[in-house]
């Protein structure tokens, strides 16, 4: 599998839209990998994860071929992961598709409540350009050649959040944001069902702030890595990568890389590609 981070920031972006803090000033000055758009990723240029407002930026600047994407997993219904208004741009005179094809969104009921309205509003159900499929935590489902398993996340309950295991052949990855330290239900599922992830992407929103609920900071990510390793879900061949950063966590990319390396983590940046 080829995994690509298209965007790597939390809801406000980094530098944040309206912010004058030191971390945003530093990122603006340093540029490059320190500039982060809202979180989105794609597997093999086929399986999209999340649909934030910055999706269009990723089409323009990250080579995201959105017309050819037919499957999109949604983690939860916060606007930095699901921006339904842009689904309308797939309809009618806004898009010409040769041939016509359907983009299916997958999400929990809370995601469906937001997205189904948009799909019906622009009558996608008639021309089959978009569809929604409800998923259930801990119940695996097939998408093309992938097996996808949603696990319960520790995040705002209103957003009906999940994290995802994605498997193809003998390769498997865990995409885990937005979430705090995993729920015990999720730990139990992992312990019973998973040995040796090839790739693990962890929510590190709070970086230097000690944070365990809703999102994670660096220290909690270290604890999660240790527990996954102790349980056999990870081993020396597993690549761990930190992801989904907020300016409130202080350290820009250039500053976080050496600290992360000490504990065996890569640090994600917009456009980063990992071959799994
Ligand atoms: Zn988020
Ligand atoms: Zn800021
Ligand atoms: Zn969220």
Describe this structure in words.
The protein has 276 residues and is α/β, with parallel strands linked by helices. The protein is built from 7 helices and 14 strands. The chain has one domain: Metallo-beta-lactamase, Chain A. The chain has helices at 22-30, 55-61, 109-121, 124-127, 184-193, 218-230, 253-262, and strands at residues 2-7, 40-43, 47-49, 71-73, 103-107, 130-134, 141-143, 146-152, 162-168, 171-176, 199-203, 239-243, 265-267, 273-275. The strands form 2 sheets. A 7-stranded mixed beta sheet has the order 6-5-4-3-2-1-14. Strands 7-8-9-10-11-12-13 form a 7-stranded mixed beta sheet. Strand 7 (141-143) and strand 8 (146-152) form a beta hairpin. It is globular and about 55 Å long. The mean pLDDT is 96. Bound molecules: zinc ion (ZN) (3 copies). Residues 16, 19, 21, 23-24, 247 line the site of one zinc ion.
Itemize the secondary structure elements and their pairings.
Elements: E1 2-7, H1 22-30, E2 40-43, E3 47-49, H2 55-61, E4 71-73, E5 103-107, H3 109-121, H4 124-127, E6 130-134, E7 141-143, E8 146-152, E9 162-168, E10 171-176, H5 184-193, E11 199-203, H6 218-230, E12 239-243, H7 253-262, E13 265-267, E14 273-275
Parallel strand pairs: 3-4, 4-5, 5-6, 10-11, 11-12, 12-13
Antiparallel strand pairs: 1-2, 1-14, 2-3, 7-8, 8-9, 9-10
Bound molecules: zinc ion (3 copies).
């Amino acid at each position: 599998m080829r995994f690509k981070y298209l965007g790597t920031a939390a809801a406000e972006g980094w530098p944040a839209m309206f912010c004058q803090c030191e971390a945003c000033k530093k990122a603006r000055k340093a540029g490059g990998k320190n500039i982060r758009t809202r979180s989105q990723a794609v597997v093999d240029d086929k399986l999209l994860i999340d649909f934030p407002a910055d999706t269009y930026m990723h089409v323009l600047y990250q080579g995201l071929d959105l017309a050819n994407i037919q499957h999109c997993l949604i983690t939860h219904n916060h606007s930095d992961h699901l921006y339904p208004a842009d689904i309308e741009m797939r309809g009618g005179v806004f898009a010409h598709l040769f041939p016509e094809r359907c983009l299916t969104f997958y999400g929990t009921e809370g995601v469906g409540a937001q997205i189904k309205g948009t799909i019906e509003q622009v009558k996608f159900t008639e021309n089959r350009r978009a569809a929604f499929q409800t998923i259930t935590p801990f119940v695996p489902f097939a998408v093309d050649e992938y097996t996808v398993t949603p696990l319960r996340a520790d995040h705002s309950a209103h957003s009906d959040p999940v994290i995802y295991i994605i498997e193809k052949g003998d390769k498997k990855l865990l995409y885990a944001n937005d979430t705090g330290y995993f729920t015990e239900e999720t730990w139990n599922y992992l312990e019973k069902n998973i040995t040796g992830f090839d790739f693990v992407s962890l929510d590190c929103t709070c970086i230097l702030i000690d944070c365990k609920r809703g999102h994670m900071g660096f220290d909690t990510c270290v604890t999660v890595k240790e527990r996954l390793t102790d349980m056999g879900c990870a081993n020396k061949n597993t690549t761990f990568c930190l992801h989904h950063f907020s300016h409130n966590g202080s350290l820009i990319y250039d500053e976080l890389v050496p600290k992360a390396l000490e504990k065996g983590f890569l640090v994600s940046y917009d456009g980063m590609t990992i071959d799994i």
